Amino acid sequence: MLYFLSALSHHAGFLNVFRYLSFRTIGAVATALVICLVIGPRFIVWLKAKQGKGQPIREDGPESHLLSKKGTPTMGGLLILLSLTITTLLWANLASPFVWICLVVTLGFGVIGFLDDYHKVTKSSAKGLSGKTRLLLEFVIAAVAVWQIGHLTHPIIKLPFLKDVYINLGYLYGSLYVAFGALVIVGAGNAVNLTDGLDGLATMPVIIAAAAFAVFAYVAGNIKFSSYLHIFYVRDAGELTVFCGALIGACLGFLWFNAPPARVFMGDTGSLALGGALGSVAVTVKQEFVLALVGGLFVVEALSVIIQVGYFKRTGKRVFLMAPIHHHFEKKGWAEPTIVIRFWIVAIMLALFGLATLKLR
Fold first, then answer.
1. Does the structure show a pLDDT above 50 at 142?
2. CA-CA distance, 210 to 301, in Å (whole number)?
3. What pTM does this model have?
4. Among the four 140, 169, 238, 252, which has the fewest Cβ within 10 Å?
């Protein structure tokens, strides 16, 4: 919205600053952060009043959670989504179709997560929507988004570490590309969802990943930089830098209230939406495989659950003391802040490794 003020720069030269992605991205970070900090306290009080007992705690989870986290309200992801949406509409160039695609995916996944959280709270059960229902809804939203992205760009994927090497998935009317892209988005959403099990554990890695993909979006949307770095050029993808900035600011603001001991949980409302946001940005800028590097922490969390469930069904034994893997370390006696901060460090290193793919070819 503010971007269009730059059209009036011939009347007031200072308005030209709204044309620059760097300025608008910084503005998006600050705006989203302030919105969260201002409305957060009253929003949390409102959630407590509506939910009463707060988020149901898993009875098969770590024993300490039944005491330390009982009564904490969930659905804090609504705060993130509100801040993200307002900020994106305010600072991004709304003529870019990719802004709308990524925003719709984020909000769509947020709605699915909200329905799941609402079911848990109203039924006072740790079980929400059925897994099949959730996945079906997620794949429908993701598939439509990827289909649109493929028509606006090209149905190809870029391999990291290799110069000018692409895989064309446009065969069968692009169905292979749609299936692959939808899998990336849905996988990202559920991986972040599985990571969100300790105070602040998922929020900071999302911030780190969003910062990394802000760089990729900026490069992909700049024909000179993309040509120099051998990154696939995607016209108008640069506006996703602003979207990522809004995502960073919203998560920073939420982290203020989610830091240990958390006053509010983001719930599936937030975690599914944040993962969907990262996945949709990665598909847009043709960096799906880099997402697996930058978001490696999320991948490990998801794999730990898959391995645990698969091995238990096959042998009746467990690989980890508890899954996802952050609970394994809790069972081993690691303090919650220790796990969270060490996982943050891992997320930073993985993001740097992912950014290195810009030059390592």
1. yes
2. 18
3. 0.93
4. 140
Tokens (6 digits) for 22: 């760097």
Domain ranges of the chain: 2-286
Identify the DSSP state of 166. Answer: E
Phi-psi bin for 200: left (phi > 0), alpha (psi -120 to 50), beta? left
| Segment (H or E) for 97 | helix 97-123
Half-sphere exposure of 312 (CA within 13 A, CB side): 12
The mean pLDDT of the chain is: 90
Phi, psi dihedrals of residue 275, rounded to the nearest 5° = -65, -40
pLDDT value of residue 260:
84
Look up residue 153 and give its amino acid: T
Rounded distance, CA 286 to CA 149, Å?
10
Residue ranges of alpha helices (H) inside 236-295 are 240-258, 267-284, 288-294
Q: How far is residue 134's CA from residue 65's CA, in Å, rounded to a whole number?
A: 26
- 147 CB neighbour count, 10 Å cutoff: 18
pLDDT at residue 31 is higher than 60: yes
